[in-house]
Amino acid sequence: MPAELTSLPVMSRRQALALAGGAVLAALPFPASATTTARSIPSRGFNLPGWLDREAGIAPATATLEKLRQSGFETIRLPVNSDLISAGDTVGVRRIRDGVADLAGLGFAVLVDMHPSADLHAAFERDPAAASEQVVQAWTALRPVIADLPAASVYPELLNEPPMERAVWLALRDRLAETLRATCPRHTLVWGPARFQGIWEIADTPPLADDNQIAAIHFYAPMAFTHQCENWDTSPLARMANLPFPATRETPAVRELIARLRTAGDEEAASLLEKELSNPWTQAAIASNFAEAARWSAAHGCPVMLNEFGVLNFCVDAQSRAAWVRAVREAAEANHVGWTYWELDQGFGFIASRQSTEGFDASMMAALLGEAGQL
């Protein structure tokens, strides 16, 4: 099968709406070992957190979405929050339905991603049975919405980065699939391996016993590069800055940072950086990870998509950031893996604001979409 995307022609908003929610979608070829030809893998996308996963979330401007669609983006992964979904909350459920329908009406494929909040993560640590029940009840409340939206363009994702051991997750995964299948027999189910949804965790995770599924993985390696200067916890990654890609231990910027960290007495960060560089940061190293994922896909007849990858824009040079993003995107495409970038307009983002058609990062657009992505 060819590795390149089968791209959807760019449409105007009016044309997209006329297609009844985007029934004609972009797709990557299904692995050659598969027994069905009906399925496709959503790709060329981005994540859109900060909207339907919080009470006061900010919706993107229609003009911004239209520009993104015209640029060549075809998929949106849309986090939703089980804390905000209950059987009696018709307003919250309707808000999700309307948001997903609007995105599909613009011609996007939409992954409805059940994205755990910090409270749900804590609940899984405290009482896994009760937390699991909360997720089941959220999908029970949301499944009529999914059932009413076109299966060709709306993909329910069972649970992002399942915060539990693999055996516990596999049991919950089966239950969530059964819950959705009760009313959504034709929708493609998306799931990822526990506990971080890392590309390395798919190798020993079996697929669902379902003939219409996509396994979803995340890729942020090396973390010292993609998460340098992160500011939301006390990780030593917060004390790494201005690291390039590609790089080795002998790269001058790397040697200088390690020396500076040790001079400051920060052995934790210096040792982590050396460990992260035990293998060089190269395009070839990235490609080898995706070749492994492709082998799993072929062995199981189950398509794979990369629905999170990205680089923080806090303290990295634009050329290195774009080089890593391009390398990951090209490795995914070469191995029949669909992709959605994390994310649109926050720390990992590639546009300044979801409310504006200005401030699109040209180097990132080119890295994600090729030269055709530059408007």
Helix percentage: 25-40%
Let me know the average pLDDT.
Answer: 90
CATH-defined topology of the largest domain: TIM Barrel
Computed structural class: alpha/beta
Enumerate the strands of the largest sheet in spatial order, edge to edge or round the barrel. Answer: 4-3-2-1-8-7-6-5
Taking the sheet with the most strands, its summary is: 8 strands, parallel
Low-confidence stretches: 1-38
Structural domains: how many: 2
Oligomerization: single chain
Topology as a string of helices (H) and strands (E) = HEHEHEHHEHEEHHHHEHEH
Q: At the fourth CATH level, what is the homologous superfamily of the largest domain?
A: Glycosidases
Number of beta-strand segments: 8
Overall form = globular
Indicate the radius of gyration in whole angstroms: 20 Å
Structure description:
This protein is α/β, with parallel strands linked by helices and about 375 residues long. It folds into two domains: about 15-225 and about 285-375, Glycosidases (TIM Barrel, Alpha-Beta Barrel); about 245-275, no CATH class. The protein has helices spanning about 15-20, 60-70, 90-105, 120-125, 130-145, 165-180, 225, 250-265, 265-275, 285-300, 320-335, 360-370, and strands spanning about 45, 75-80, 110-115, 155, 190, 215-220, 305-310, 340. Helix 3 (about 90-105) crosses helix 5 (about 130-145), helix 5 packs parallel to helix 6 and helix 11 packs parallel to helix 12. The protein is globular. Glucosidase involved in the degradation of cellulosic biomass. Active on lichenan. Pfam families: Cellulase.
